[in-house]
Amino acid sequence: MIKTDILIIGAGPTGLFAVFEAGLLKLKCHLIDALPQAGGQCSEIYPKKPIYDIPGFPEVLAGALVDNLMEQIKPFQPGFTLGERAETIKKLDDGSFVVTTNKGTQHNAPIVAIAGGLGSFEPRKPLLENLSKYEDNGLAYMIKDPEVYRNKKVVIAGGGDSALDWSIFLANIAAQVTLVHRRTEFRGALDSVDKVQELKDQGKLNLITPAEIIGLNGDEVLESVLIRKISDAKEDIILEVDSFIPLFGLSPKLGPIGDWGFEIEKNAIKVDTFDYQTNIPGIYAIGDVNTYPGKLKLILCGFHEATLMCQSAFQKIFPDKKYVMKYTTVGGINGFDGSKKEAPKAVIKAID
């Protein structure tokens, strides 16, 4: 059985940053993730997607963010159980928890932090005839490597941040980018909407709104899409394409975690914003997996939640110790991993 101080379910950015915050408090962490590598969606779905709202980084690729987080937590030597899904949880007489994966690996910890992002997920697919025929033959639901689309004719459908961000990014790579959305208004960041409009005005991006894709054509691979403009006088447009990318978001599922006794609201775990604890004492939920009034599903918000969670976890593990964290600095000559690199630590003022 693997024993640790904080067992983190989910090795995405929020879970990884929780390792750093726990390490400052000298708490050991172990992470479980169903994916075969750390990083969550940032590694699995869009490693080359630019992210613009990480403090200190005007722009950072999702995969690079994961690499930086892994480097940041290296001194604290977290453990990983990858490629296994957290299946069951049991509370022991001493108040700690045992979490067992679908492959039978058991983990024991006094604190469990669920950082599973959207949980298990699958893309929301458009209702189009012969859709499956073109999957991997010109149709993709996510972009892992934008270089695949260099000098290609690409059509993106959607009105959220992913559709906007990828349209902006691919406008400088693809031979032609067309963004199709059912409405004239978008759900993404206002700055991204402005950039799309600028690219349209510069002739670098085609914007067709309000409109929708109503047909796909091609013998063996996708050759063209049929676009219908939504207006009083409906107009159909046939557009030759190399790739069609519908970005309508992901359909999240909590999976087995949804049966662990949590209060669930809209497929997310309700938490107390004081420390992001669930209705089960000792179990926290941080990142996109949780919900509360005013919740924003942003990575930077997950970082904040992870920080407060670790403070609360420390108090639960060491109820007799009181402290005030002042700031972070570096440790002695050798790092936690035995290297010459100095390891960060928290400067804590004890309270009698």
Poorly predicted runs: 331-338
Using the 3D structure, state the CATH architecture of the largest domain. Answer: 3-Layer(bba) Sandwich
- In total, the number of strands is 25
Assign the structural class, choosing from mainly alpha, mainly beta, alpha/beta, alpha+beta, or little secondary structure. alpha/beta
Query: Which percent band covers the strand fraction?
Result: 25-35%
The CA-CA distance between the termini, in Å, is: 37 Å
For the residues shown, what is the average pLDDT? 89
CATH level-4 homologous superfamily of the largest domain: FAD/NAD(P)-binding domain
Largest beta sheet: what is the strand line-up? 6-3-2-10-22
What would you note in describing this structure?
Helix content is 21%, strand content 30%. The chain starts with a strand and ends with a strand. Helix 1 packs parallel to helix 3 (62-73). The radius of gyration is 23 Å and the shape is elongated. A five-stranded parallel sheet has the order 6-3-2-10-22, covered by helices on one side. By secondary structure, it is α/β, with parallel strands linked by helices.
Layout of helices and strands:
Layout: E1 2-3, E2 6-9, H1 13-24, E3 29-33, H2 41-44, E4 50-51, E5 60-61, H3 62-73, E6 79-82, E7 86-91, E8 97-101, E9 106-109, E10 111-114, E11 120-123, H4 131-134, E12 153-157, H5 161-170, E13 176-180, H6 190-201, E14 206-208, E15 211-217, E16 224-229, E17 235-240, E18 243-246, E19 250-253, E20 264-265, E21 268-270, E22 283-285, E23 290-291, H7 299-317, E24 323-330, E25 344-350
Parallel strand pairs: 1-9, 2-3, 2-10, 3-6, 10-22, 12-13, 12-18, 13-14, 21-23
Antiparallel strand pairs: 4-5, 7-8, 8-9, 11-19, 15-16, 16-17, 20-21, 24-25
Helix pairs in contact: 1-3, 1-7, 5-6
